[in-house]
Amino acid sequence: MSFSDQADRTLALLAVTPGWQRLRSLRQDCDDETVAAIVGEAASFAERVLAPLDAVGDRIGCRIENGRVVTPPGFAAGYRQFAAAGWIGIDVGECHGGSGLPLAVQAACAPLFERGCMSLMMAAGSARAACHLLAAVADAETADRWIPKLLAGDWAATICISEPDAGSDVGRIRTAAAWHDGIWRVTGQKVWISFGDHDLCGRIGHCLLARTGEEAGTRGLSLFLVPDRHADGRPNGVTPERIEEKMGLHGSPTCALRFEAAEAILLGEAGRGLPQLFAMIEQMRLQTGGQGLGLASACCDIAEAYARERRQGGAPDAPAVPIAAHPDVRRQLRSMRHRTEILRAAHLEIACAMDLARIAQDPPDRAAARDFAGTLLPLIKTFGAEAGFDIASAGIQVLGGAGYTKDWPLERHLRDARVMSIYEGTTGMQAIDLLARRLWRDGGMGLEICLERAAADIALGGGALARSGMEAVEEFRALLAHMQALKATPEAGLERADSFLRAFWCLVSIWMLRRLGSVGLGEDELRQSVDRLRAELALFGRLCR
Amino acid sequence: MSFSDQADRTLALLAVTPGWQRLRSLRQDCDDETVAAIVGEAASFAERVLAPLDAVGDRIGCRIENGRVVTPPGFAAGYRQFAAAGWIGIDVGECHGGSGLPLAVQAACAPLFERGCMSLMMAAGSARAACHLLAAVADAETADRWIPKLLAGDWAATICISEPDAGSDVGRIRTAAAWHDGIWRVTGQKVWISFGDHDLCGRIGHCLLARTGEEAGTRGLSLFLVPDRHADGRPNGVTPERIEEKMGLHGSPTCALRFEAAEAILLGEAGRGLPQLFAMIEQMRLQTGGQGLGLASACCDIAEAYARERRQGGAPDAPAVPIAAHPDVRRQLRSMRHRTEILRAAHLEIACAMDLARIAQDPPDRAAARDFAGTLLPLIKTFGAEAGFDIASAGIQVLGGAGYTKDWPLERHLRDARVMSIYEGTTGMQAIDLLARRLWRDGGMGLEICLERAAADIALGGGALARSGMEAVEEFRALLAHMQALKATPEAGLERADSFLRAFWCLVSIWMLRRLGSVGLGEDELRQSVDRLRAELALFGRLCR
Asked: In this protein, which residues make up the domain named Acyl-CoA dehydrogenase/oxidase N-terminal (chains A, B) (predicted)?
């Protein structure tokens, strides 16, 4: 039931997302009925096929046996079904065998899948990212050979960036590629590789950053495709050395891999490895936001249903009342629901913008959409991750002792969610991205566009809510000028980057709240939420001074 | 090393706790040297004996075998050693075989033990609570028979309150005691019983609330001691039915127990079960605060040490710098450390007050100490619990991917900590306790005393910090009047209870910050923290309006 509720909320919010209206005018094939059918089918698939795998994956986890990673029972079959249903390629170009739908449609479906089984979706996410990456930068032969196999679930892929001494600091990668006798060979160690090895399918292509030049930092890095074995099945010098024992996400084997003179295909231009990866990194950050949204949606639904059923308190000589009737529980549930729906609205907003950055007709429109999306991305990544974790924790609180047990999925969701603030760029990196890159380096054009759109949307509604929202916009504008000025003293600025990121999210949340009427939230409770968000904006604004 | 650091910080803060100075004047035996020796020995014991058990307890957990609970390897021996060293009875009266030291000394040691192995300490905590309870309300024969056995670790105890339909809502307890042929017999089910069964020692006494009267609610409840078996070893109708599968605290078996006509000893007066338990409940809430403090201390130390060692970032052509040098990491570490030391100071403050409530010479002094301690207690319970969880999570963030693995204890501490906001009265119940009981029902005398003492301490220091602190006191005083007025509209008040609790903690934190110079925090960073806390106070104050 709640998967289909989630689908309904998604469609209701999509309908009031301005970017979606623009996108639809460019994509006649994406009529309401088609999209509703797709999202509805995603909900059904997630509930039927993926959800039953989640607890199994957590309980049994992965292990290395005879040098290969064994995934939990049912994962391989689930993965094949996911691929066969065409879900990996929703937004991959038709020329490569995908469905060629907008990213927005993919983003509408993804949180349903993440809710179903986030750990298995780590494999699907890498395959999809690799498809996009290969479509963008690989030579035609490589793309034509790999993308259809990835879409079919016959082959899989990983993204290999981190190394023991190069986590957030990508420039210190030491894995090296050498050109010899017309063949690139990669040697080195990669860590934190999700599904770095597994038994879901027949072959794994590692999309990997390695050093090809002498230049220090990121400039000497190139991008390669390194298959774990040759087409004929012979091994290619790639060894899974270890699976990390993690707090959660046990169904997703996080591997340390050793590459020993592994044959590799150069992707795109030598020395342009990192810039070529950027589009893929953006996709992964959006995916993280969707993971958080999926888990937050689940936890909200569970807590609400529990609070309607569970009876405690009330007059001692009368039957106990549902705990949802207690003011403090009501407050908790409302806060969880609002955070979740705000995130859902923002997640759709940014996905539409990422589409428009690609397909809007005028170049200035495309540039504006790109700046806008790039500026929202650190927010979606950070607060999607935090919402997943916090709302799982809030759900546990509503359920009390029961929530702390494995009788309910909340504690699993909390453990799974904790990593989301770390991978794909930690919260600290997102804060630096917003401040140092988007504002200081790029001049804050994306922030300016956000403020204009927020102001326009907020003003539309009129009334007290609009007045309060407009004040928030002005407050944030003043903060922006302050943060811009800190460019002169970067240490002081960077120490405030986290508060700035949070202040910005308060503003975007106030903006998105305007849309939540469409998912049934009343004017009164929206006003309360705006008040709360304004108080939080004031807090973070103050911490930035 | 870090256990002894923690002991040093504790002693430094104790020395500047005003209540401790007063207490020492009443207890000549508690000279500095003696107390330092005790706390130092606690640190050493925790590190040597308890800490090695923690990971084992988490990994192996507990199971039911042949109808009895089997605890993790080493737990039974550790428990015996803990008891043999006299730690269970630090503050239990000498007349009962304890050391008769102030609670403050116990509270100085407890977070060290909790840091060592919180799950095993759940057993010790129940035994100690039972000693206090029996000393207060049991007949002399029962007390004399049980307390020495509990202190020696030969026997153990539990506190049985919750039932499937009576969690926060104690008045709905259905377990009943019947008086027949001169014997009380208890029948019913109890859930969430920590160490409800185990193999640590020979006999378990269940301190249990059961219904003896017809009256609805809590009035018909009486307190019993129900041994799991008779003195000769015959079973007494107590069966562990289940161990909960929890997110953490695996070393502590959380049991569902069935009592079938189990022979029971009435403790104190029939119908006075709940009021008689209150002192014990207060002890358990203080213990929870100490648990959070112990875990927070561990996580702080680990994150600081890691950030000094781990190198990432800096100029690409220079060696990487320790991550502690990055402004955002510095900010994270500082925030963790300040929260931890504020909690430590407040924990000692309240423990001293609980002692003074018992032994101060003038009755008005005792009453004031009681009101004061009772008012601080919901804070220590709530924010001790939250600090344990949040600082474990913050520590994971500092360590990045490594923190998410079982290579480090942070993820275990996070899982263990999550239950602390639930048991011994959820955060929601603490907020109601502060607002509806301390302020509305009792008139807020304890809050008034807090404000007076805070103002006096804050004013002492002088300077900008004192001015800002005094403003905070005035702000909170205004908030207090507002919340008092909400007594007329209790629903509206209760919806704000959580924010009120948080606002109060901001104020107490500002007050405690004054003492942190003694643990080496500089004036500048203290001022930053006061600014942050004042901004948070403003936020929560606003949410109360």
From this structure: 37-154
The H or E element spanning position B383 is helix B363-399
**Distance (Å, whole) CA B401 – CA B398:** 9
Neighbours of A274 (CB within 10 A): 20
In chain B, what are the domain boundaries?
Answer: 2-152, 157-274, 426-545
Residue with more model confidence, B460 or B147: B147
The residue type of B393 is S
CB contact under 8 A, A245 and B406: yes
**Element housing A365 (H / E):** helix A363-399
Task: Compute how many other C-beta atoms are within 10 angstroms of the C-beta atom of residue A232.
Answer: 5
Helices in A310-433 by DSSP H: which ranges?
Answer: 327-359, 363-399, 410-417, 427-432
List pLDDT tens digits, range A343-381.
Answer: 999 999 999 999 999 999 999 999 999 999 999 999 999
> Which one-letter amino acid corresponds to residue A500?
F
- Which architecture does CATH list for B157-274? Beta Barrel (2.40)
> Which chain B residues touch A250 with a CB distance below 8 Å?
none
Query: Is the confidence at residue B333, as pLDDT, over 80?
Result: yes
- Residue B352: which residues within 8 A CB-CB, separation 6 or more? B17, B18, B19, B20, B22, B23, B102, B104
Question: Tell me: domain A157-273, CATH 2.40.110.20, correct?
Answer: yes
Gyration radius (Cα) of chain B, Å = 23
Instruction: For B181-220, give one letter per residue: b (16+ CB within 10 A) or e.
Output: eeebbbbbbbbbbbbbbbebbebbbbbbbbbbeeeeebbb
% of chain B beyond a pLDDT of 70? 100
Q: Is the pTM of this model over 0.90?
A: yes
Gap between the Cα atoms of B98 and B135, Å rounded = 11
CA torsion B179-B184-B190-B196 (nearest 10°) is 180
**A interface test, pick of B193, B215, B329, B418 with most A CB neighbours within 10 Å:** B418
Q: How far is A8 from chain B (nearest CA, A)?
A: 30
If one looks up domain A2-152 in CATH, what number appears?
Answer: 1.10.540.10
Quick one: what percent of chain A has pLDDT higher than 90?
Answer: 93
The closest of A434, A385, A401, A415 to A540, measured between CA atoms, is A434
Model confidence pLDDT, tens digit, residues B227-286: 999 999 999 999 999 999 999 999 999 999 999 999 999 999 999 999 999 889 999 999
| pLDDT grade for A317, boundaries at 50, 70 and 90 | confident
Helices (H), ranges, B272-326: 273-309
Distance from CA of A423 to the nearest CA of B (A): 7
Q: Give the ranges where A436-496 is alpha helix by DSSP (H).
A: 445-461, 463-485, 490-495
Contact B404 A419 (CB under 8 A): yes
